[in-house]
Amino acid sequence: MGRSLQDLVGFLSEIHASHVELYLHQQGLDTTTPAGRAMFQMMGVFAEFERAMIVERVRSGMARARESGTKSGKAIGRPSTPEGVRAAIKQAHAAGGVSLRRLAKQFGLAHETVRRILCGGD
Hints:
The chain is mostly helical. The chain has helices at 5-17, 34-67, 83-95, 100-107, 111-119; strands spanning 23-24, 29-30.
């Protein structure tokens, strides 16, 4: 429901301001009671903690991957479009009459990738 405890508390405040109470049947959680509100907030705290731990593990794994292998490390992210394909896209576009979407379909790329190549962003 929320990405952080602050979001969760804000959400709960908004629905209470609208005179709406939250009852989660499967979890047995009822925000009309103090115990229900406390449990709802504790679940939010643990969800936020879990999310922070996942982010930390991903960042440390990416840093470790960059440092391992060759001197320059491993590449993170999608591979760049091969230079031959980029040149062919530019040549086809220079010939004229071909839309970005048609070029994208022809070369098997997303139209945003083709746009970036033609605008010099990729």
